[in-house]
Amino acid sequence: MRVSELIDILRDKPSDAEIEIAFVTPVDDDANEIVVNHFEVSAIFSATDDSVLLISGEDADVDELIDALEAGDELDGDDN
């Protein structure tokens, strides 16, 4: 998603509206079921002008991640 798309979506929302992220995952690859987990956005990190990372999690974990990112550490995992 591009920043402009997110801005367009949020433009008409009240400024005090809560922002959450919902992760949708299959229960089983063969089942027709899903699990939806909702998380509040705890922090935003932007290491470059062309990327923004929305971060959610326990406060201590979020702080540790922000510290690591500010120190230049790279995230493990896929770059989605």
3D shape: extended
Count of DSSP H/I helices: 2
> Strand share of the residues?
25-35%
Task: Tell me the structural class.
Answer: alpha+beta
Write the element-wise H/E pattern from the N-terminal end onward. HEEEEH
Mean pLDDT: 86
Largest sheet, in brief, is: 2 strands, antiparallel
Amount of helix: 25-40%
> What is the rounded distance between the termini?
11 Å
Could you give the order of strands across the largest sheet? 1-2
Can you offer a commentary on this structure?
The protein is an alpha+beta fold. It is 25% helix and 25% strand. It has helices spanning 3-10, 59-70, and strands at 20-26, 34-40, 43-45, 53-55. The strands form 2 sheets. The protein has a two-stranded antiparallel ribbon with strand order 1-2. A two-stranded antiparallel sheet has the order 3-4. A hairpin with a 7-residue loop joins strand 1 and strand 2 (34-40). The longest helix has 12 residues, at 59-70. The mean pLDDT is 86.
Any key phrases for this structure?
80 residues; two-stranded antiparallel ribbon; 2 helices
